[in-house]
């Protein structure tokens, strides 16, 4: 698993490098997808309550119908300003600019046709007086690109705008010229602010510049200047850090911006989220004073024909004046959205964390569980981004951490697919002839890259061998006939092993080696092995009947079974290896098979296998022996049937145990008497073995007899 995690980690690290490079170096046309994902969060969040302190006086379709096409004569607009001032407007901001003189002014018309205009009203003066006598912040617009028109001066600003800790690199956008109001109106105003909205590359307005540079001086936006005027601040400080503009400060008020001095707008909702009052209603005096008094009043237009419409995360057609209303509302409430100076480091950390979590998940979880958890992680990540955006006001990158996780999951899943395909081919190649198809399928479902690494496992080992194989081969006459007979014998024997979920390890001439509980888990593997052995003996009897009928020699076998901890895994040379088991329990199982012959038994099991049996069998204790190559004695048993013992066998076995107890207590005469009694009654070869031993020990009394019989040959 560690090796797998290491390989996956290398893939994840490579994806992290690619994602990080993309984050820093891909063009804005790609980066804009991050903004679009954030737009979806705005839509999901839905509208939030807008401040009642911000009101929009709208030059709407109704106003155009009642007062005529825009631009109106300046005296009409002056009346709108006068009525707002009369109703106690707090601050009035103009999202419009009067760049040309009013051609409908009587003074101008009379002058142009040669009449005395000294007593005729001048609508520009009327408008200028209205501006001067109301809390109006004039609006103007910067031409950011060189449009071939020569600049004609700078707008007036009532505040001092200073830059603090300014680096050598310029971060504020610079304007070519200012499109201002006519001189008489511009000079009448207390102050002014630009109302540029600069859309992102996809045409959506997500931010408003708080400050722009013109003639190497910083100028405030309309919304910022309205807030400054309302708060009575004399100075605006633009603070920098090493990454660019950090924010704008007025007294105790701090407005965070991005590095270019732009306020990211926390939109309250779609168009008309703020209170709108028709400009005609203000003109006609049809307004409630409480809707005007002390409010931030923005005068702009929602009329389609006046072309002040923008696209926002909520709407593709959105009055530009309402974007400024949102900016003022954000500053009033202080619920800013901003990218802090440490955002880039945080974004890299998010990419790294996303890749690391995905790599770990893919390495340890199954395909189905991993997919479900990955979807949950993606939702958790989106939830985290949503929380940071709307609860903490911190704008973090969504696109690249999300893409890095998705790319990691897809790459590692594809890698898993190819590795699993190789693993399946490996399993089929190794085990298709060793185990049953059901076991192979189980291995395919539950295996991983570590399934065949060398490890310790508790298994039951099986050895079988044909008795008198030399005599049998001579009787068959030819190698071909012998191989045919062996195949006829081996086929049912192997079928029984694989049907009981055993694994055939190898064929050693006429011998079969098998084991249970590896590579896959086999519950009650001791019972599975012993039951398979009994079935083999019964099957062999049926086979011998067929062989005898065909005039062929019959076959006799011995089976040895032992249980213990072995080393299991892929073993061999680097170029040629096999899945097998090794260990002392394997050697003992082989020795037990060899003990079938001296005891005339068909199935011999060790005390370790017997201890693990859960089912009832007819079992007889054979001996306490010390086999060649082992110092510790082991009790061995003969399995006679896979059914519970009969009452007759129980009585016989009780008498046999009495004889064994006397024998092991060195009471050879007493034991001899019982063994003879049993042999004369049942004729079992085992009893004759003990008769010969007792007679030998009576004639040659042993010293320090412990009841253990030592075999010096295999």
Report on this model:
The chain has 714 residues and is of the alpha/beta class. It has 3 domains: 2-28 and 347-386 and 398-425, no CATH class; 46-333, no CATH class; 436-645, Alpha-Beta Plaits. The protein is 46% helix and 20% strand. The protein has 22 helices and 26 strands. A hairpin with a 7-residue loop joins strand 24 (618-626) and strand 25 (634-641). The radius of gyration is 48 Å and the shape is rod-shaped. The two termini are 41 Å apart.
Layout of secondary structure:
Layout (H helix, E strand, L loop, with lengths): L1 H24 L2 H18 L8 E5 L2 H7 L6 H13 L4 E4 L11 H7 L10 H10 L3 E8 L16 E5 L12 E3 L3 H6 L2 E4 L12 E3 L1 E4 L2 E4 L1 H10 L3 E7 L2 E7 L2 E4 L5 E3 L10 E4 H5 L12 E5 L8 E2 L7 E2 H14 L9 H22 L2 H24 L8 H33 L5 H10 L8 E12 L2 H8 L2 H21 L3 E6 L2 E6 L8 H25 L7 E16 L4 E6 L1 H16 L3 E4 H5 L6 E9 L7 E8 L5 H18 L3 H15 L2 H15 L9 E2 L4
Parallel strand pairs: 1-14, 1-15, 2-3, 2-15, 3-6, 4-10, 21-23, 24-26
Antiparallel strand pairs: 3-5, 7-13, 8-9, 10-11, 11-12, 16-17, 18-20, 18-21, 19-20, 21-22, 23-25, 24-25
